[in-house]
Design brief:
heterodimer, A: 86 residues, alpha+beta, four-stranded antiparallel sheet, 4 strands, B: 207 residues, mainly alpha, 2 domains, two-stranded antiparallel sheet, 2 strands, 63% helix, 4% strand, rod-shaped
Chain lengths: 86, 207
């Protein structure tokens, strides 16, 4: 019986499509940096800090795997600007 | 020891046989259902969810395919990506593709099956997909808004970009979106199919 259940699960694994995995925040920020044409050197960033001012503008800073830090400004109306931090 | 190995080998063999049998039964079942007509394998890439969404949104075009219009759920109010909607939701894209209907298959007469895509549906699906993160979506939205600004300027005859340059920028943006939608192949295919219609509706954005 146990074998049959196992066999069914394995068989279903071939039939059913694999589930889609949601991207993590670190991957999301790294993708945004790369989308703006900057080199990140990896798929995920680290040392993420996030601040939001009283007007609703959000600032995210993160470090790429290559050591470069970036600042991502998200305005209240959703505009995204990426700048490297020297 | 040998007895133990033999016993284990027998178990492994029986498991393999069972897996093969179950897989075979499933495959035979699916093909039998297809042959009966109880299940139709659509050669077009949309999933069932897509069909429901599309038929719900393209109320003016849904009757072309004979589908009953189904009202789609209320879009999620994120408040972030609405800027694109105001411009693009008015425009709807219709993608016509040649396909073989069931009647055509039986009678030998090829009938064109018209599939419709609602621009607003694609935008909603893009908003809801898990394949792209929030910041990336916002960045793409910024790019789309910039492109729309350029097109508006072009329509006002005030643009410094030619139509070819705008088209190249649009293609680049589409390439980015499609590359990012690697984990959502259904949406990626639909957007790719509606590419020309998206471009047309972009050009129709009022100045």
């Amino acid at each position: 019986m146990k074998t049959l259940i196992l066999a069914t699960i394995v068989a279903l694994g071939f039939v059913l499509p694999p589930p889609a995995f949601a991207v993590t925040r670190a991957e999301d920020i790294a993708t945004t940096i790369m989308l703006r044409g900057y080199i990140c050197g990896g798929k995920a960033v680290s040392n993420i800090t996030e601040t939001q001012d009283s007007t609703g503008n959000k600032t995210v800073t993160a470090t790429c795997p290559n050591g470069q830090r970036y600042r991502i400004d998200v305005s209240r109306d959703g505009r995204v600007v990426v700048r490297p931090i020297q | 020891m040998m007895k133990y190995i033999r016993r284990n080998a027998r178990i492994v063999f029986s498991t393999c046989v069972q897996i093969a049998a179950i897989t075979g039964i499933i495959v035979l079942g699916i093909s039998a259902s297809v042959a009966d007509g109880s299940v139709t394998l659509d050669t077009q890439p949309e999933s069932a969810q897509t069909d429901i969404l599309l038929s719900g949104q393209v109320d003016s075009h849904a009757n072309v395919t004979g589908d009953k219009p189904v009202k789609a759920g209320k879009p999620e109010e994120t408040g972030k990506l609405d800027g694109v909607n105001h411009q693009l939701m008015k425009d709807r894209a219709v993608v016509s593709r040649q396909g073989l209907g069931q009647e055509g298959a039986t009678s030998g007469v090829v009938k064109p099956v018209v599939k419709t895509f609602g621009m607003d549906v694609l935008i909603e699906r893009l908003k809801k997909t898990d394949a792209i993160g929030m910041f990336t979506k916002l960045a793409l939205r910024s790019d789309a808004l910039d492109l729309m600004k350029m097109v508006k300027a072009y329509n006002k005859r005030m643009a410094k970009y030619s139509l070819q340059e705008l088209r190249a920028r649009f293609s680049g943006l589409m390439l980015k979106v499609l590359a990012l939608l690697d984990d959502d192949p259904g949406l990626s295919k639909d957007i790719n199919l509606a590419r020309e219609d998206i471009w047309k509706s972009l050009l129709e954005v009022k100045a």
